[in-house]
Amino acid sequence: MKLRDLPKVALDVVYPRHCLFCASILAREENRSLCEACWDRLPFIKSPFCPRCGVPFKSEYALQWSPDHLCRDCRQLKQRFDTARSVGRYESPLRELILAFKLRGRLTAGGDCSFLMEQHAGRLMERRRLDLVLNVPLHRWRLLRREFDQSALLARAAADALGIPVATHLLTRVVNTQSQTDVKDRRKNVRKAFSAENTEELKGKSVLLVDDVLTSSATVDECARTLKKGGAAEVHVLTLARAVW
Ligand SMILES: [Zn+2]
Ligand SMILES: [Zn+2]
């Protein structure tokens, strides 16, 4: 052990760090907020899923005979984003990891979220041509209260992994929407909530739109509508988690 490690060791003895999901004591060298067992239980989304919106299919044979088969929403709704993918389901222990960062500002959890995004962005975006990374923006009042913007940090992680620039200034939230549980209300609620800025920079670009959790697709769809109106050619969505009903 080196001398400079001493204070941290002393701190760990007095205040051992705990896994934020199962509360077991974390090994001293572990720089994560989940223990190894919980990390191994992260609910990653695996094939088969809808080729367009990425929602997992119940049957593992869903795409066996028709690889282009779309889910019901994608067949019935007019959605403006081109494709959507998520790293995992919004379930334990991924949900706890996201909430620890988002609501309690736990930085180790934030580091874990960024790490997961960095690790999976390349695989999930396959061979899409992407020019810019944006995030679903918070309204500036909410940003002031929260001090940091979780989705902007995830956008930075995805951009690093994919080697493309971040351009968060191109989309702003002009209406401070309330969270709604009803899907219909949600679509109405986010209508015209965003504005595309510096549209010259958006013209003809394929945009990757990043957020922490995809609950209904209403918000990302409205962002996609706004970006396309502003000149973007394609909008692909990537989130860390998605709610699966
Ligand atoms: Zn654990
Ligand atoms: Zn779909």
Structural class: alpha/beta
Attached small molecules: zinc ion
How many domains? The number is 2
Radius of gyration, rounded?
19 Å
Order of helices and strands: HHHEHHEHHEHEEHE
Mean pLDDT over all positions: 88
First-last Cα distance: 49 Å
Name of the CATH first level of the largest domain: Alpha Beta
* Low-pLDDT segments: none
Can you describe what's shown?
With 245 residues, the chain is α/β, with parallel strands linked by helices. It folds into two domains: 1-40, no CATH class; 42-242, Rossmann fold (3-Layer(aba) Sandwich), CATH 3.40.50.2020. Helices cover 36% and strands 14% of the residues. It contains nine helices and six strands; from the N terminus they run H-H-H-E-H-H-E-H-H-E-H-E-E-H-E. The chain has helices spanning 6-14, 36-40, 72-76, 94-102, 107-125, 140-146, 150-162, 183-190, 218-229; strands at residues 83-89, 132-135, 171-173, 194-196, 206-214, 234-242. A four-stranded parallel sheet has the order 1-6-5-2. Strand 5, helix 9 (218-229) and strand 6 (234-242) form a beta-alpha-beta unit. Helix 5 packs across helix 7 (150-162). The N and C termini lie far apart (49 Å). The structure holds zinc ion (ZN) (2 copies). One zinc ion is lined by residues 19, 21-22, 24, 34-35, 37-38. Residues 19, 21-22, 24, 34-35, 37-38 line the site of one zinc ion (ZN).
